[in-house]
Amino acid sequence: MILEMLSYPFLVRALLGGALVSLCASLLGVSLVLKRYSMIGDGLSHVSFGALSVAVAVGWSPLAVSIPVVTVAAFFLLRITENSRIRSDAAIAMISASSLAAGIVVTSLTTGMTTDVSSYMFGSILAMSRQDVILAGVLSVVVLCLFIFCYHKIFAVTFDESFAKATGVRVKIYNVLIAALTAVTIVLGMRMMGAMLISSLIIFPALTAMEIFKSFRSVVVCSGILSVLCFCGGMIVSYGLSVPAGASVVLVNLAVFAAVSLVKFPQ
């Protein structure tokens, strides 16, 4: 069945693009979960949906519009939580609901729920074009290189911002970097998972890896491996049962997390 899957070019594109995006999301997810920003993926995906709704309505490229808009939203979200009394979860919920509502209103007044808009909302394998995969590959390499290059700084910022500041680390810059990398990853992953499910790529692998290991490095490596394996497993389930790919990937991640939690690996 796997060989049969690989005979279809659109499935090969989906596997390549999805595996790269899953890897990026899982690496960033460890920091986001530990910093209690695990739902930022959900919020930013709704921002992206609002941006692409406007882009589709006026005939612009959805990715070209979504990436800068979501990046700005990530910066704005950090500024809200740093400089006001609004908690991070409340800020994410506020931006998420507002953006989704704006996207729905724009869509209803212009194009309606077309196939293109629906693919971003719920995900679609067929929506992955060759250009999407190339863009996902280039940006994923950039995300991975920046994460590896800034690994020690990200580690310090994740666990103790006060200590990181005392040692001379520019905490705000690295928080912004994490937010920007997350924004790019979210926009790329929406083609595959949809706005409703993309946050699962951030949350599940990180939580599963934390059940197995305790050190940050081990959790990051394990999260990346699990994310790619679960994505490929979800694609196989999707193809075998003829069910949506995004939902299949989420359920495979859930099954692995449940299995690991039940086994209770020795620490």
Based on the model shown, name its key terms:
13 helices; mainly alpha; 0% strand; 267 residues
Structure explained in plain terms:
By secondary structure, the protein is mainly α. The protein has helices spanning 2-6, 9-34, 40-58, 62-83, 88-109, 115-122, 130-149, 151-159, 161-166, 171-193, 199-212, 216-241, 245-263. The chain is globular. The model has no long low-confidence stretch (mean pLDDT 79).
SSE blueprint and pairings:
Elements: H1 2-6, H2 9-34, H3 40-58, H4 62-83, H5 88-109, H6 115-122, H7 130-149, H8 151-159, H9 161-166, H10 171-193, H11 199-212, H12 216-241, H13 245-263
Helix pairs in contact: 2-7, 2-10, 2-11, 2-12, 3-4, 3-5, 3-6, 3-10, 4-5, 4-10, 6-10, 7-10, 11-12, 11-13, 12-13
Proportion in β-strands: under 5%
Structural class: mainly alpha
Give a count of the beta strands, DSSP E runs of length 2 or more: 0
**What is the 3D shape?**
globular
Strand count, sense and barrel status of the largest sheet are: none
Query: How much helix is in the residues?
Result: over 70%
C-alpha termini separation? 37 Å
Uncertain stretches? none
Radius of gyration equals 18 Å
Overall average residue pLDDT:
79
**Secondary-structure element order, N to C:** HHHHHHHHHHHHH
Helix run count: 13
